[in-house]
Amino acid sequence: MAAAPAEAPAAAAAAEERELDFLNPKGERLFGKLVDTGSDDVVILCHGYVANSEMCQFPLVAAELAEAGLSSFRFDHACAIRSRSERQGPFLMGNHEDEARMRAALIADMAAAVAFMRSIGKRVVCLLGHSKGGINAVMFAARHHDVPKVINLAGRFRTREGTLQRFGADILERLARDKAIPRREPWGEWVMTEEDFLNRCNLPMEEMARSVPPTVCMLCLHGTADTTIPYADSELCASLVPNSRLILVEGADHNFTGEAAGQAMARHVVNFVLS
């Protein structure tokens, strides 16, 4: 049964921030920051592709949640860049199954974070995923029904179209020929494989969105000036999830850069969690 919605405390408590770590099912040690207001209610923040938990205004979101009396936990996935979290194996562009799924006893990154918070006495009232994390948030909501609220923040939904747009319309032909293509990024080097690429392109996002039960409420939150992932992706997702809301932040880019966009996004997050 889903937990009861969070209620706004009478007054925001002084928040304590501390670093915590936990293991995912692969045995990778993941590091994160708990901003603890003393409230049992916690919001988990999950970053996206080639990012980490200090990006996309996550510290601001954590501060705004704390101001409302809510605790938060943001952590680095195993494939985070510039992170202390451990990685066993290469960086992967897809890897959504390892980051979101639970099959029998296998609880991977998102589900492991939820379980970890519960193990220290917290009640997970909302899970937020940004960009690639937004894909994972939809997957999580479709498969796990015990977190009552989920936020898809500027998430990719039309994965095939978006991936082809990012890497070029001929990328499938090149991968079919070469099987693996080395790539150099500002943060480091990695190898794109045909298997990894197809894992991302072939995700059944519409099917998963439709399977999110009405007991899980989803907010699709996106900036209208996002040139990385068009806000039409969030519009489509919101139209398919049975119990969903769509909010567009006028003029905000993919990472909600700037004080005005960041504050607007964080305000919508807090209002949704407390609604």
Please, could you describe this protein's structure?
- It contains ten helices and twelve strands.
- It is an alpha/beta fold and 275 residues long.
- The chain has a single domain (16-274), classed as 3-Layer(aba) Sandwich (Rossmann fold), CATH 3.40.50.
- An eight-stranded mixed beta sheet has the order 1-2-4-3-7-8-11-12, sandwiched between helices. The protein has a two-stranded antiparallel ribbon with strand order 5-6.
- It is globular and about 55 Å long.
- The two termini are 19 Å apart.
Question: Helical stretch count?
Answer: 10
Name the strands of the widest sheet in spatial order: 1-2-4-3-7-8-11-12
CATH class: Alpha Beta
The CATH homologous superfamily: Alpha/Beta hydrolase fold, catalytic domain
CATH architecture: 3-Layer(aba) Sandwich
